[in-house]
Amino acid sequence: MAVVMGPNQYGKAEVRMVAVDRGGPRHHLRDLTVSTTLRGDFTEAHRTGDNSAVLPTDTQKNTVHAFAQQQPVGEIEDFALRLAHHFVESQPAVREAQVQIEEHAWERVPVGGSGHDHAFHRAGDEKRTAAVTFDGAQAHVLSGLRDLVVLKTTGSEFRGFPRDAYTTLAETDDRVLATAVTARWRHLQPRGDWAKDFAAVRADLLETFATTHSRALQHTLHEMGRIVLDKHSGIAEVRMSLPNKHHFAVDMTPFGMANRNEVFFVSDRPYGLIEGSVTRDDVEAAPEAWYGLPEF
Amino acid sequence: MAVVMGPNQYGKAEVRMVAVDRGGPRHHLRDLTVSTTLRGDFTEAHRTGDNSAVLPTDTQKNTVHAFAQQQPVGEIEDFALRLAHHFVESQPAVREAQVQIEEHAWERVPVGGSGHDHAFHRAGDEKRTAAVTFDGAQAHVLSGLRDLVVLKTTGSEFRGFPRDAYTTLAETDDRVLATAVTARWRHLQPRGDWAKDFAAVRADLLETFATTHSRALQHTLHEMGRIVLDKHSGIAEVRMSLPNKHHFAVDMTPFGMANRNEVFFVSDRPYGLIEGSVTRDDVEAAPEAWYGLPEF
Amino acid sequence: MAVVMGPNQYGKAEVRMVAVDRGGPRHHLRDLTVSTTLRGDFTEAHRTGDNSAVLPTDTQKNTVHAFAQQQPVGEIEDFALRLAHHFVESQPAVREAQVQIEEHAWERVPVGGSGHDHAFHRAGDEKRTAAVTFDGAQAHVLSGLRDLVVLKTTGSEFRGFPRDAYTTLAETDDRVLATAVTARWRHLQPRGDWAKDFAAVRADLLETFATTHSRALQHTLHEMGRIVLDKHSGIAEVRMSLPNKHHFAVDMTPFGMANRNEVFFVSDRPYGLIEGSVTRDDVEAAPEAWYGLPEF
Amino acid sequence: MAVVMGPNQYGKAEVRMVAVDRGGPRHHLRDLTVSTTLRGDFTEAHRTGDNSAVLPTDTQKNTVHAFAQQQPVGEIEDFALRLAHHFVESQPAVREAQVQIEEHAWERVPVGGSGHDHAFHRAGDEKRTAAVTFDGAQAHVLSGLRDLVVLKTTGSEFRGFPRDAYTTLAETDDRVLATAVTARWRHLQPRGDWAKDFAAVRADLLETFATTHSRALQHTLHEMGRIVLDKHSGIAEVRMSLPNKHHFAVDMTPFGMANRNEVFFVSDRPYGLIEGSVTRDDVEAAPEAWYGLPEF
């Protein structure tokens, strides 16, 4: 028996960077959290401590900064592509690079009815995401979002499930449904009008959540993905991770009152976790595009 | 020497509750985190374990739920007032009650150009707050907000500060200024048009942050408070806690580039923390209104 | 009416610093989070942006670092005293300084039966704390701890409480009692054998929690404080903040089983929050020692 | 083109449970966070909302509770195996179950020199983990740990790395090395003396971290894994995720002092992230054992 290296990777995680476009009096900003991951043959570094193939993670951070200085950051998918290409094409040991970016949204502070030139407020906790994987030949681009928290006060049921000796849940034809959407969608091509696409897919996800009469969170997940594929021919598949943020109707009978789905206790844990992907049947799967990402 | 009880209080913290108004097809919701605190003579509970004066915290939670069922929650200041009155007026041992509420904002999901009747998405991480203290005779109402994250890309300097043996900071006449505003303002009366007031004060805080040429975060804090007092005769004082979320311009000289305040590294810790209050000189201070709150 | 400054303060929060004593082959380390707060007359900075009195928070951070270099850090109470004295005595505008420190504990990695010379592992999430306030004449020293999580599987009851229309809680003579202790104790003098004292007080708090038959968390709080005052003549008062980390026995009757306080669901929110202080009746209160601290 | 379901799974996440063994006066406790994941053919639930195959996540939570009542929890690997077998063997639609458990450690409160019978304090933030995957035929058992935070004050270098246009990092032959170890190891068999094994592997990981002269965190990772495989013939592979918790020596030259690796600023973000696996060359890989886990 010998001990050998299995899968491995390394990089710089969570480079927090704000890039400001000061080209005119009306400033624009991009607020990003960038993580870089390099894969390749780093066996000697592991076995003997020979670091001659190990581009420092500090250099990876510097590269993120320098690339933001060299030309406008642009859309996060393009910025991730530039970085991934750079690492693979400049470092012999790097076989594949994966770059993950989260973008934090800002809005202009309203002053006198219009947005201020250089003052902003954070638009919320939701993030737009990109994850790009490039192996020297093929680039995969995943766009996405995280922490899009949504809730329906009606139009959601959960019935017809199997019951075993441990089942106490009552069937319901009217419940609150709430989740925090994490979604990623894989583009067929590594180029596109990313910003316009993102806005359209996000609107489709939201609208489908709202208008689907939900028979379960799985059912809603499928509808959301299906609509995106129906309307966006450039998207190959959609993956979602949906925690079921339980809202339990409070029992008011001890207080002599009826609670007709009006007052809910919000539970933090435990939570249902529904994860799934919806895909076209005529495109090839690309597991390498999803490898190493934090979600299902 | 004898051992005696000093200041003490108890209550239920972080009751997470969603109340839905289903009075018509267009639902409305309030998403609240409510904390109750009771003060009074609980010496025997502490000394001998005689709980005859200790209304259970579980009951306090139930009361929050039941009060939301009995009548519409309404504005958080009014809901807090109702709860505070109830505890003081129904429990002989309770000399004073403090009720803190955070409200989480939701927006309607846009569908076909207008907001959906019963589907919502979280509007962000910012919270509207209320803190009410009632001692049986006088009620103090503090309105406020938390986690309003703002940033200016220019219009901020920091100069003219003293230098000692440990000072290395360079003076600057152009820096990024960013903070997460926590603000509370004390009303002269325990009644008002809370929602309208809140919207107006929030707009004033934002607009003043944007339009003030800042000589320091202290300077900005004072201007924000001053404007609120100028424009709202019913407000006695404003307190703010402003973490200075440092954005450091990256040194690009090693890469042969100049960084003209375009690319910034965002630091998490340490951070400057600027806290202060601005008050009218002709109103009495009310330290009891602020007692026990988590911020300065 | 004029607008005037009310209470205000500023400083640097959460300076994360590790200081290593490399005086011999057996290294020692101190891992600290230091926050400094300065109070005084900073009215002009707020009103006009005149910063001539405002020692930068960056300088405060540098001072923390430099003081750790100049001489061994020593006990956190002494390090906080040195910093507080420095700011008050060197800056004319500073009337009072408060320095808060959290110390993160490390243990030596066991190798061959004894602790390694220079390799350590974190001992847990509990922190030892110090909070020193110095106004140029008098120094107050509070020692303390945070996040000491304790639990009893029996020896805790909660009975005899008042019941109102919203009370559903059953009386119990046997429940799980769990809390995360935050405690601070005020010393009569700003000097002492801090490390030895800390170990003794911590042991007293733990032992009293364990051996007290608890009639309520308030009762346990009082006993813990009383014992500390009984055994430590140099301590004037003890304050504690005790969240009641509820453990609810799961109802097993639907599954045909009895749960004799054996299986518990652990709830995150809401939680009871019990806060109180125990003090000697023959010492003067010192509210200024507690001013501005994050807890009750 | 048709839209089809891709990979999907669902379950209950983060069931927080404490189980107490009260069989005698000396109580024992297990404090667990359990997450269950079911995989199988749930296509109809997604496509049409037919839930006849969807065992509710609420039932999964109940099952965790009931199984803890039925017989002693025992070691977390065995508890996970029982749960995974149950779901696969009792639910026709379930092809595979994965059960993840984190165990929170408690120690007895020391009273009079020995541990108390029924009072405990949390031993730290480190968790012992288990992840079991069972597909009806084969069970994979991964044991592990999370949040084991370690630090060396010397015995760590980083040299000989490639330099490009963006490299500014200096080579160093003496730095602080710190990380929070997440490790999982795969057992060749789904049975064993889990507790004894865990203690031994943990000790090996710690001791190897301490005694390895580190040429890079990659080098340390490999040594830690290699030693575990050398000493434990029942373990097939070890995977680790090691964030490089950077400690930067503070530049004291502005203050006229030299910092000989004595005072460090601890940075939160960004951080290097080193991930890798070490495996025997004569065992088959088992990607299905690792599928869906949150780490690399």
* SSE-based structural type of chain A: alpha+beta
Question: Based on the structure given, which CATH architecture of the largest domain in chain A is correct?
Answer: Roll
Low-confidence stretches of chain A: none
* Beta-strand proportion of chain A: 35-45%
Mean pLDDT of chain A: 97
Question: What's the helical proportion of residues of chain A?
Answer: 10-25%
- Give the helix tally of chain A: 6
How many discrete structural domains of chain A?
Answer: 2
Give the terminus-to-terminus CA distance of chain A. 34 Å
> Which shape of chain A, going by the Cα principal axes?
globular
Could you give me the name of the CATH homologous superfamily of the largest domain in chain A?
Answer: Urate Oxidase
SSE succession of chain A: EEHHHEEEEHHEEEEH
CATH topology of the largest domain in chain A: Urate Oxidase
Instruction: Write down the Rg of chain A.
Output: 23 Å
Strand order, biggest sheet of chain A?
1-2-3-4-5-6-7-10
Oligomer: homotetramer
Number of strands of chain A: 10
CATH class category of the largest domain in chain A: Alpha Beta
Report the largest inter-chain contact.
B-C, 85 and 85 residues
